[in-house]
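Risk mitigation, structural track. In case the binding assays with thymidine-5'-phosphate fail to produce interpretable data, a predicted complex structure has been prepared as a fallback.
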Amino acid sequence: MKEGIFITVEGPEGAGKSTILSELYEQLVKDGYDVMQTREPGGISIAEQIREVILNKENTAMDKRTEALLYAAARRQHLVEKVIPALEDGSIVICDRFIDSSLAYQGNARGIGMTEVMNINQFAIEDRMPDLTLYFDIDPEAGLQRIARHDGREVNRLDLESIDFHERVCEGYQSLINQYPERIQVVDASRTKEEVFSAAYEIVKKFIE
Ligand code: TMP
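Fallback model:
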């Protein structure tokens, strides 16, 4: 059977990617595709448990390399337990965040270095990179304001970082966009939800077909 397609969705805080991802999932199911929606860190029990440790606001003592290793550990388990089996079944897997998040957040924003973070992740992913990545582009300040307005979205340990941190996250993503111009497609996320959805859907449909 033909191997599935691995699509990841990336962006800074408040880019609206999770909402659009769910809408993409529903539309692709309606279109008749075999699709699986998942997220990082999490998506399966072990990785959701690691997520709680990483994002817990009480864990202020967490070292940045510990943080990077925990994200990589959650990634590994999620990949082998959920993503790879679905791809082997021929499904389209849409995942909210993947390795680019670690490169931008831990590599660039935390200052560990993108190459170092790539190396530890290589151990976790064994060359399994996304086929397509949608980058939801929004000014970090506008993104954080969106979160502040958003009822129900719990504020996590990383949301509490300074605006400088979130600017470095976007800078990290920008260098990944330059490095992987074919894989990473940029979606202007400052527009209305409907406009962002249709731009994202168009890119995905074109890629699948
Ligand atoms: P979420 O808010 O999109 O669910 O992501 C959880 C947080 O974890 C978000 O602040 C981004 C951060 N993150 C990293 O710092 N590194 C990673 O590798 C991943 C997957 C997420």
